[in-house]
Amino acid sequence: MSLRTTLAPALRSNLRPSPPSSSSSSASSSSRLLNPASRRLASNIPRNTTAPLTAQESSAAQQLDWPTYLALRRSQRLWGLIASIPTTLIGFSAGAGYFATIEADPTNTILGFEPVVIYGAATLGCVGLGWLAGPTVGGALWRLTHRRVAGAIEAKDKDFFRHISRWRADPSRQSGTSPPPLVSPGRSSRPLLAANPSPDYYAEKVGSLRQYRTWLRDQAAFKRKAQFGQGSDAVY
């Protein structure tokens, strides 16, 4: 059974815009259809599609059900976070051990700064690199310990991200990166998308079917705000 079939009722209910009050439902529906700002905002939101799975990938993906796959995916992410701790310490030890042995002349500057400042910044850079290397190291160790399901996990990843790319919202509609806002006639000149940050784009926090339903609701709420605005700037 596919993820779409399992959650089809939730998808349909989440993607349906919430109606306003019952007394003004008919007038609100008419204004949505007639308002040019709403039509233009809705037309600017692309639909993400990806290529379907091959027969071999589909057969491998069926070896895992969705709860098991999401649990394995959560454990892989946890391994990456845990591995970031030793890699960060290694980066700090390597950076501090190297730059602490360099003799610095206080009379000479590097890019206009004292050598101590540059060496300290370089040490912090080594710490950052160690932290970023943690998920890669942790993911490699996780794959070594789960080699029997590696093929099924890879195929299920493609199937999962196919669902994600279909239902996720367009991040260009968030307030920080949105184009000049369209203002509906007779309303305030404030942006329609103010304080509407894009939700989890890659669904990295999804580790169960419940979290996936929550992710779908967040995407649907973002799309509604992007199309019709929010608060006093809402277009009904």
Keyphrases for this structure?
236 residues; mainly alpha; 9 helices; 59% helix; flat
Could you describe the 3D structure shown?
There is one protein chain. The protein has helices spanning 3-6, 8-15, 25-34, 36-43, 55-61, 66-99, 115-145, 150-167, 209-228. With 236 residues, the chain is mostly helical. It has one domain. Helix 2 runs parallel beside helix 9, helix 5 (55-61) packs across helix 8 and helix 6 (66-99) packs antiparallel against helix 7.
Query: Globular, elongated, flat, extended or rod-shaped: what is the shape?
Result: flat
Termini separation comes to 38 Å
SSE class: mainly alpha
Percent of residues in helices? 55-70%
Largest sheet: none
Strand content: under 5%
Order of helices and strands: HHHHHHHHH
Q: What's the rounded overall pLDDT mean?
A: 73
Number of helices: 9
Total domain count? 1
Ranges with pLDDT <50 over ≥5 residues? 20-46, 177-185, 187-194
Q: Please compute the radius of gyration using only Cα atoms.
A: 25 Å
- Number of DSSP strands? 0
Transmembrane segments: 78-98, 118-142
Keywords: Membrane, Mitochondrion, Mitochondrion inner membrane, Protein transport, Transit peptide, Translocation, Transmembrane, Transmembrane helix, Transport
Main location: mitochondrion
Subunit structure: Component of the PAM complex.
What topology does this entry show?
Layout (H helix, E strand, L loop, with lengths): L2 H4 L1 H8 L9 H10 L1 H8 L11 H7 L4 H34 L15 H31 L4 H18 L41 H20 L8
Helix pairs in contact: 2-9, 5-8, 6-7
